[in-house]
Amino acid sequence: MVTNPSIDLNAPPPDGPHYLLAVTDMAERCPVVAHSAIYNDSGIKLVEKGARIDARLYDRLVQHRLQDGIDGHLSAENAVDLHAIAALARQRCQEPLMQRMVQAVGGEARLLAPLESLPLPAPMAFKLTVMREQQPALLAHSVGVMLVALYLGLQSGLDVPGCTSLAAAALLHDIGVLHMDPIWRDPAHKVAGAGRKHLVAHPVTAMLLVRAQPDYPPAVAQAVLEHHERMDGTGYPRGLEGGRISAMGQVLLLAEVVAAFFDKYADHPAQRLSLTLRLNHRKFPAPLVALVLPLLADASTTGADPQTMQHEAERHASVLAQAFARWAQLRAPLAASMPEAGAFIDARLAALQKALTEAGAHPRQLADMLPLLQGDGQGLAELALVGGEALWQLQALVNAVQGRWPRLAERASAGDAAVADWCDACGQWLAGV
Fold first, then answer.
1. Is residue 5 in some structural domain?
2. Are residues 111 and 258 in the same domain?
3. Which of 29, 14, 19, 13 is nearest to 58 (CA)?
4. Exposure pattern of 306-341 as b/e (b: 16+ CB <10 Å)?
5. Secondary structure (3-state) at 39
6. Residues in Cβ contact with 195 at an 8 Å cutoff, skipping those fewer than 6 apart
7. Which residues, in sequence order, are bridge partners of residue 377?
8. Domain assignment of residue 7, yes or no
9. If residue 38 lies in a helix (H) or strand (E), which one and from where to where?
10. Which Pfam families does this UniProt record tie to the protein (predicted)?
11. Number of domains in the chain
12. Segments forming the whole domain that contains residue 323
């Protein structure tokens, strides 16, 4: 086990400047009132009872350590409640993956029944209101994780009280994100080195906030803390392995990944996720994965011939590898002479390679992947499907470059000639698939 020594699991629940900014910013659009006075830790009153919160209070609040969490002092107009959560859950139940889960458990009513007794104390309701107003996609994701977790819990034989606790953990698992610097939501922001401590902190923050609420049993806070752990010990924040992760935490870590794939990818999310779960089977709890894979099966991949699918996957990977390698060879020495078209291709290829890597389908991963999928017709078919989608994106990139810069074909400069040659080579490779 790799334990992060900088993690303080006994710290008080934080407010922090980023969360206070989110609250005061929300208050400019959604009326927020202090239903009790707010004091700093020295007993000095900062905000009167009944005061309307606005952006002008941010500087006063952020300069002090508050006596207790700000959420317990504030109420918002049209706050998130159980009815709002249930309505969003019913809305998400109309999505293809959720429809399959609903059918598998015996109907929407059974899937959502644990929500009827879900505790939602006022501070957590306020926190979810901030999430809805400031990061609506995060609330939608949290509800999606909750639905997947409930499916896994019900299919595993968990009783209603257990499912209710599981629903609470899933719904609240990402409230720590509200306390992070908004820069971490920028896709262009690279998380590396020491900067990862901010990313690692959000499950700890969420755990501390949940643990401070007596309505939730300790298992809820523990599961929230563990939602980014992995069975092989490669997760965070504590690098727990296998049985050291609680049963509820194991459900949550898988539910988070399942929901994230469908929230993130518009193209073939089921196939991407199925492939990822198969290729990273040591990271996820096998009995729970076995409950997810049937939901991801595609009629177009079921019963596929392994040998045929392996050949197709290899051909796709070969074309992609040649395209990536050729561009790398041309781009480096000629960067200055093809800035506009070069930057366009750089960005698109980088996005494509990132997507392939996340799906476990990048050409450089193939040598390790194919032995794991030997004889697995569906897994190989999914790999071929992702590769085929990548080839389509490569062709679309070539078409876009040729359409935007038609004069490249004249090869008036070394840079123009390099781009034109790369496009022509890609066209020939693609035509051979």
1. no
2. yes
3. 19
4. beebbebbbbbbbbbeebbebbeebbeebeeebeeb
5. strand
6. none
7. none
8. no
9. strand 38-39
10. HD_5
11. 3
12. 306-431
Residues 325 and 252 in one domain: no
Q: What is the DSSP letter of 189?
A: -
Per-10-residue mean pLDDT, the chain, length 433: 52 78 92 94 92 89 86 94 98 96 97 97 96 96 98 96 97 94 67 59 93 96 96 90 95 97 86 80 92 82 77 92 94 78 90 83 84 82 83 89 88 90 94 85
What's the predicted TM-score (pTM) here?
Answer: 0.75
Please give the torsion angle defined by the CA atoms of residues 104, 106, 107 and 110, in that order, rounded to the nearest 10 degrees: -110
Q: How far apart are CA 228 and CA 237, in angstroms?
A: 7
Assess whether 262 and 360 both reside in one domain. Answer: no
Q: Are residues 245 and 361 in the same domain?
A: no
Q: What is the pLDDT of residue 238?
A: 92
Residues 105 and 146 in one domain: yes
Distance separating alpha carbons of residues 181 and 237, to the nearest angstrom: 18
* Residue 183 shares a structural domain with residue 321: no
> Residue 165's domain is classified under what CATH number?
1.10.3210.10
Closest alpha carbon to 111 in 84, 93, 95, 87: 93
Q: Looking at the structure, do residues 288 and 412 belong to the same domain, yes or no?
A: no
Whether 256 and 379 share a structural domain: no
